Amino acid sequence: MKKINRNRFFISLGTGFLSVAFLRNFNFESFRKKAVKDYPVKVEINPLSVSRNKPGENNVG
Quick check: 59 and 47 in contact, CB under 8 A? Predict the structure, then answer.
């Protein structure tokens, strides 16, 4: 097993901690495009669909 010297170990450990802290606090929202979820959803009810609000009746017409 290859030995790593003490100074290099602490430098890489500190770099790892700083990169994790930076990535957790970085605002990635500014780089993304507007997604579909950002726009209002328009729903149209199909007039030929079967109504589920009337139990026991045959709604197919």
Answer: no
Alpha helix (H) ranges present in 1-61?
A: 6-25
Q: How far apart are CA 44 and CA 47, in angstroms?
A: 9
Question: Could you give the CA distance from residue 61 to residue 57 in angstroms, rounded to a whole number?
Answer: 11
Reported as a single tens digit per residue, the pLDDT across 28-54 is 777 776 666 667 778 898 888 776 776
DSSP letter (8 states) at residue 52: S
d(CA 27, CA 39): 21
21: tokens are 């802290």
Note if the pTM is more than 0.70. Answer: no
- CA–CA dist 21, 15 (Å, integer): 10
